[in-house]
Amino acid sequence: MNNAPRVTVWNEYQHEKTDPHVTKIYPNGIHSAIAQYLTRMGMIVQTATLEEPEHGLSDAVLSVTDVLVWWGHIAHEQVQEEVVGKVQQRIWSGMGLIVLHSGHFSKIFKRLMGTSCNLKWRNIGEQERIWVVDPSHPIAAGLEESFEIAAEEMYGEPFEIPTPDTLVFISSFQGGEVFRSGCCFQRGRGKIFYFRPGDQAYPTYHQPEVLRVIANAVNWAIPITGAKVQFGESTESD
Amino acid sequence: MNNAPRVTVWNEYQHEKTDPHVTKIYPNGIHSAIAQYLTRMGMIVQTATLEEPEHGLSDAVLSVTDVLVWWGHIAHEQVQEEVVGKVQQRIWSGMGLIVLHSGHFSKIFKRLMGTSCNLKWRNIGEQERIWVVDPSHPIAAGLEESFEIAAEEMYGEPFEIPTPDTLVFISSFQGGEVFRSGCCFQRGRGKIFYFRPGDQAYPTYHQPEVLRVIANAVNWAIPITGAKVQFGESTESD
Amino acid sequence: MNNAPRVTVWNEYQHEKTDPHVTKIYPNGIHSAIAQYLTRMGMIVQTATLEEPEHGLSDAVLSVTDVLVWWGHIAHEQVQEEVVGKVQQRIWSGMGLIVLHSGHFSKIFKRLMGTSCNLKWRNIGEQERIWVVDPSHPIAAGLEESFEIAAEEMYGEPFEIPTPDTLVFISSFQGGEVFRSGCCFQRGRGKIFYFRPGDQAYPTYHQPEVLRVIANAVNWAIPITGAKVQFGESTESD
Amino acid sequence: MNNAPRVTVWNEYQHEKTDPHVTKIYPNGIHSAIAQYLTRMGMIVQTATLEEPEHGLSDAVLSVTDVLVWWGHIAHEQVQEEVVGKVQQRIWSGMGLIVLHSGHFSKIFKRLMGTSCNLKWRNIGEQERIWVVDPSHPIAAGLEESFEIAAEEMYGEPFEIPTPDTLVFISSFQGGEVFRSGCCFQRGRGKIFYFRPGDQAYPTYHQPEVLRVIANAVNWAIPITGAKVQFGESTESD
Question: How many angstroms separate the CA atoms of D186 and B175, rounded?
Answer without folding.
Answer: 33
